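Protein entry
_____________
===
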Amino acid sequence: MKQVSKILLPISGLRNIEAAFVLGANFARRFQAHLAVLHVRSDGRDIAPLAGEGLTGGMVEELIASAEREGNRLSREIQQAFESFGARTPDIEVVPPRIPFPQGRPSMSFNMFQGPEHEIVPWHARLSDFTLVPHPDTGDDVSSSEALHAVLFDSGRPAVIAPREPLRHMVKRVCIGWNGTAEAASALRGVLAWASTAERVRVLHCNDYQRRGPDAREVVDYLSMHGIAADRVEFSAIDRDIGRGLLAACQDFGADMLAMGAYSHSRLRQLILGGVTRHILENSTLPVLMSR
């Protein structure tokens, strides 16, 4: 059964855009799937309630006009970046952003909407097999993390976070970070599309990471029912940092993809105190499939 037919790639800024395009094309080829690139334009009028007291109507109008100009400029640059990538990727057909999409060969499209990103992105993600998100660096494009969190919390579909640097080869070695939670189980189901054709698959587990639920041995048994041979390896936290230990175990394996559950604790707690999800997001150099 074909497991991936449509990949959503929301683009909100220019940071790390090339790495996301390259990985999206990589996945489109792997699954003979359609890569739907989506840009959500901000609405300059959204800043009006944030303008604050003491501003005249004319000042607010100028702020809105300035935001509109900046939004238009960014949208043009993102579309130009897509068109440039499409011209450099002749093996993937660029098609209009509407069905029917080509079957049995990779394709990609560009679509643009205006409105609240946290509503539009998960709306489209719900009818995609997974959503590929550019690496959410802090800085100018902090809104890129809004797309990630919207997908994780409001789409019911897994997200794959692209690394900062382009991954130009096919995924061959898959690691699954397992801790027995419902979030980890969702990630396990999501990564089957890659694991089923990978050269090697490894389940990584750690006593300090494990929660109440099935253990790694049972995960290996489950994978075998899907015809996937996997081994299991216990890793250790490094300086009490489970995320750091997990990434070190991935590196030891030579992994080029990691799958794991996201935010087993609340997002607020992870942002304030840190956590495995946060460490992986900030430090991973691999594509990471996350689900919750």
Notes: Residues 173-291 form a domain with the Rossmann fold fold (CATH 3.40.50.620). Confidence is low (pLDDT under 50) at residues 139-144. Residues 6 and 128 are 5 Å apart (CA to CA).
